[in-house]
């Protein structure tokens, strides 16, 4: 770690989002291709309804990073990461991984046994972030098709692959069969093209 990083981490605040972060989040996402932009209203709802399962990163009051995530209504043991964003100037400093690590240690996510996310094939930074996080967890990432370019996006968006990371650290030990069931259950979002 160098002096720039020391200074960065000294001034960094990680906390759950507030509704008043919604507009700044909208601007940060809009400035961060290839992320899909959302309406301000959508970002306000993320900050309000998913606050306990999301994280905002601030430096001197400015929003510099965000993870929007939630537990799907039918699956309280999964934490699904919708979007991760780090402001351009801070990318590659370790902030993305810090936010993920912080988030899985919060009371609002403690029931989650696995983390899932969806990534387009060409998003190298995102694959690297989640693969590095999985390595740190001692977990094996499993990839499957989630939404197909033609079937789900009418050819207007890249494929979205589901990446599942389990088990997460600091959870009660589960028998190995549970993890196998886990892998199958985690693929219920996908069209199972890879495992069946
Ligand atoms: C994806 C993103 C959130 C990563 O955040 P970050 O803070 O830069 O990531 P980190 O610094 O924590 O890096 C984590 C790991 O990924 C690697 N990595 C980060 N960016 C990379 C890149 N462009 N190419 C290759 N590897 C990369 C780092 O080297 C690190 O690996 P290591 O732990 O083995 O050393 C950031 O690049 C971003 O905001 N991109 C635009 C929005 C986006 O695409 N979001 C993801 C889709 S939801």
TrEMBL record:
Any GO MF annotation of the entry: diaminobutyrate acetyltransferase activity
EC number in record: 2.3.1.178
Annotated keywords: Acyltransferase, Transferase
Pfam families: Acetyltransf_1
UniProt xrefs under SUPFAM superfamilies: Acyl-CoA N-acyltransferases (Nat) (SSF55729)
Family recorded in the similarity comment: Belongs to the acetyltransferase family. EctA subfamily.
NCBIfam families cross-referenced by the UniProt entry: ectoine_EctA
Protein name: L-2,4-diaminobutyric acid acetyltransferase
Lineage: Bacteria, Pseudomonadati, Pseudomonadota, Gammaproteobacteria, Cellvibrionales
